């Protein structure tokens, strides 16, 4: 296409003075000069079509906004990164075989690891300090010093690359600790990824994965695409295609008590573990999907010795969830029990006082794109914070078991919202009330009888 400079210096034609079609050119002369004026009142891109020859028509598009946006994009690309927010998802072990005890005291394992949609959020900002990272969190009991894997990961990155970036980090913790979900390992992997972004990508993903094994066996997995067959201590990661559909729902149920990984391995007896070939388990899952017989976890028996109530919880979930779950199993070294096939926990979780303090979450499988970190699913972010539109969230949360919820004006109590609920099924009501209890505003609920008189 000819440039505007060339066209402005060609004797093509003169614009009529009374032309009803205004141009973004304030003047146009056949004597070789032209000047650009301000954009028209509707800020629409103007087209000046010039007949250059009998055989060719050239179109000029002049849009100052587009040029400015391109300049701004270029400045953004060149500007150093100062802040970054990343999702830090956890994982489950669909099966976990312990195959051998090594001379170094560790155990060899073979496991199908898969990332799921439950996760923490990490916020990084460059710190002016050149000597120390600063970590904060919403979770009590989480160490904020060099014992934390996030700080260990940042120290490791500086050691490997020679960079001197230090950070302010805030950890918005949603994954419970001591759950067998790899929340801390995911945080470390996310911190390594973030440090690499701030440094302009000095390291490859493969290097980050290899380095991470120095501070944790499960950390390298998170540099996979989200599904992997892991061996060795867990640090030997073989990427695989997701063996099951990503939208399969699951329910995560974790009692308040945690299992000590060291204590679980201490009680492990290799002669009592399964003898099923883990590759056969992987093949069967890939061909037939997830079922109870393939979800083998050799750490369940010793974990149940450490925490007998965990064994009872699993047994009750299986008994109550017949027809609801395709498989029920413990993840990692515990203490989370996973129910595959439904996002809802069984009814006794809501009814039994023993389980009033359990952690509950629904989740799906999750993967990531190459050269990108994991993205937080919209549903996950929506359930982790109180909605702006209270009534809209209520209407979206109810499924069949409740009539349309009717939020009213807040009563006299400050910060309360009054909700009228037409009860139809006890299970749905309890699920709904449990979700309300997780919001950061107190809720006053009035129950009304339905046509069958069930309250």
TrEMBL record:
GO terms for molecular function: 4-(cytidine 5'-diphospho)-2-C-methyl-D-erythritol kinase activity; ATP binding. Pfam families: GHMP_kinases_C (PF08544), GHMP_kinases_N (PF00288). GO terms for biological process: terpenoid biosynthetic process. InterPro entries: GHMP_kinase_C_dom (IPR013750), GHMP_kinase_C_sf (IPR036554), GHMP_kinase_N_dom (IPR006204), IspE (IPR004424), Ribosomal_Su5_D2-typ_SF (IPR020568), Ribsml_uS5_D2-typ_fold_subgr (IPR014721). GO terms for cellular component: chloroplast. The keyword ATP-binding applies. It is an enzyme of class 2 (transferase). Pathway: Isoprenoid biosynthesis; isopentenyl diphosphate biosynthesis via DXP pathway; isopentenyl diphosphate from 1-deoxy-D-xylulose 5-phosphate: step 3/6. Signal peptide: none annotated. It catalyses: 4-CDP-2-C-methyl-D-erythritol + ATP = 4-CDP-2-C-methyl-D-erythritol 2-phosphate + ADP + H(+). Keywords: ATP-binding, Chloroplast, Isoprene biosynthesis, Kinase, Nucleotide-binding, Plastid, Transferase, Transit peptide. It is found in: Plastid, Chloroplast. Gene3D superfamilies: 3.30.230.10, GHMP kinase, C-terminal domain (3.30.70.890). Its EC number is 2.7.1.148. Residues 295-351 form the GHMP kinase C-terminal domain. Residues 148-225 form the GHMP kinase N-terminal domain. The keyword Thylakoid does not apply. Belongs to the GHMP kinase family. IspE subfamily. HAMAP family: IspE. This is 4-(cytidine 5'-diphospho)-2-C-methyl-D-erythritol kinase.
């Amino acid at each position: 296409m000819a440039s505007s400079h060339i066209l402005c210096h060609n004797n093509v034609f003169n614009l009529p003075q009374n032309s009803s079609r205004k141009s973004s050119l304030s003047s146009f002369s056949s004597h070789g000069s032209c000047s650009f004026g301000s954009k028209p009142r509707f800020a629409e891109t103007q087209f000046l079509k010039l007949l250059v020859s009998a055989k060719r028509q050239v179109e000029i598009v002049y849009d100052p906004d587009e040029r400015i946006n391109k300049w701004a994009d270029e400045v953004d690309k060149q500007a150093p990164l100062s802040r970054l927010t990343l999702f830090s998802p956890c994982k489950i072990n669909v099966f976990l075989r312990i195959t051998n005890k090594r001379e170094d005291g560790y155990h060899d394992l073979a496991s199908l690891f898969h990332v799921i949609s439950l996760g923490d959020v990490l916020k990084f900002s460059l710190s002016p300090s050149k000597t120390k990272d600063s970590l904060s969190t919403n979770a009590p009991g989480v160490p904020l010093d060099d014992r934390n894997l996030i700080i260990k990961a940042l120290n490791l990155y500086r050691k490997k690359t020679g960079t001197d970036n230090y950070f302010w980090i805030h950890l918005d913790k949603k994954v419970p600790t001591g759950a067998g979900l790899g929340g801390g390992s995911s945080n470390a992997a996310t911190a390594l990824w973030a440090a690499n972004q701030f440094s302009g990508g000095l390291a490859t993903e493969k290097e980050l994965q290899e380095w991470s094994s120095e501070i944790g066996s499960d950390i390298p997995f998170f540099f996979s695409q989200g599904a992997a067959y892991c061996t060795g201590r867990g640090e030997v990661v073989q990427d695989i295609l997701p063996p099951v559909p990503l939208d399969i729902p699951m329910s995560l149920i974790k009692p308040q008590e945690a299992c000590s990984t060291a204590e679980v391995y201490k009680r492990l007896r290799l002669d009592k573990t399964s003898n099923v070939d883990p590759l056969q388990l992987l093949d069967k899952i890939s061909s037939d999907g997830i079922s109870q017989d393939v979800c083998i976890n050799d750490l369940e028996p010793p974990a149940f010795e450490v925490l007998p109530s965990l064994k009872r919880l699993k047994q009750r979930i299986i008994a109550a969830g017949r027809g609801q779950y395709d498989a029920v199993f413990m993840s990692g070294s515990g203490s989370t029990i996973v129910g595959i096939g439904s996002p809802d926990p069984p009814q006794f979780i809501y009814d039994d006082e023993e389980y009033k303090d359990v952690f509950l979450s629904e989740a799906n499988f999750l993967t990531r794109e190459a050269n990108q970190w994991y993205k937080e699913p919209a549903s996950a972010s929506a359930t982790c914070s109180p909605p702006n539109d209270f009534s809209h969230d209520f209407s979206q949360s109810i499924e069949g078991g409740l009539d349309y919820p009717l939020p009213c004006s807040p009563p006299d109590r400050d910060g309360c919202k009054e909700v009228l609920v037409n009860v139809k099924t006890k299970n749905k009501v309890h699920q709904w009330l449990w979700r309300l209890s997780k919001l950061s505003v107190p809720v006053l609920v009035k129950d009304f009888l339905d046509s069958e008189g069930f309250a």
